[in-house]
What does this fold into?
Amino acid sequence: MQIEEKIRIQATPEQIFPFYENVSTWSSWDPGVQSSSIDGEFITGAKGRLQPVKGPEAKIEFTEITKNQSFTTTSKLPLCTMSFVHELVPSGEATEVTHKVVFSGLLSPLFGRLIGTGIRKGLPATMQGLRNAVESKS
It folds into this structure.
């Protein structure tokens, strides 16, 4: 199962990516995040934690990072992996920003329904929060 949301932000990927790299401030633009942290640097293989506003704290791993282009975090659930994919694609004077959540594994249909419904509802506000934060700094 996959959930996806896109938005255009009037900024370059280089102006947007620092909002991702500064993990401890995600809650300032993402209304679904109560707190977030990373152990060490923003690099592939780093580990961290994310406390959503609703639900239990999750251990996350940064499984892919391509500076100014994309990053992915994954969380392990019983018989399911939840991946959050963030992509930045230049588009004229703006950037097309995509956030995807992918559930994979045996219990992905179950977790897709249990967790995915809330994520689907919250993604538009997350994307708007990111746009507001970036465009107010640009």
In short: The two ends are 35 Å apart (CA to CA). DSSP finds four helices and seven strands in the chain.
